[in-house]
Amino acid sequence: MKINDAGRINAINPYQRSTESQRQEQMKKSTRKDEVSISDEAIKLLQAQKSGKIDTERANKIESLKQQVSAGTYQVDAAKLAETLAPYFKQSSEN
Description:
The chain is mostly helical. It has a domain of 40 residues. The protein is 73% helix and 0% strand. The protein is built from five helices and no strands. Belongs to the FlgM family. It comes from Paenibacillus rhizoplanae.
């Protein structure tokens, strides 16, 4: 009776081949690189910022609001806030 049959050792090779092919597939997947895309609107915004076409009225308003917030004098108009939020609460209560 033979203890070590030569045919049994060859039976391991298909398993090794499948694990090697899986490793190769994983290596191919891991070498893929990430892609970044920028929307057309973002490109236009970046171009406007670079060219210096900043809306001065808007910039002045933002600066004023920053100063009010930092000084603690900014007041929220509760009626305007409620008017803006009301449609969202109406939609959520209907669903």
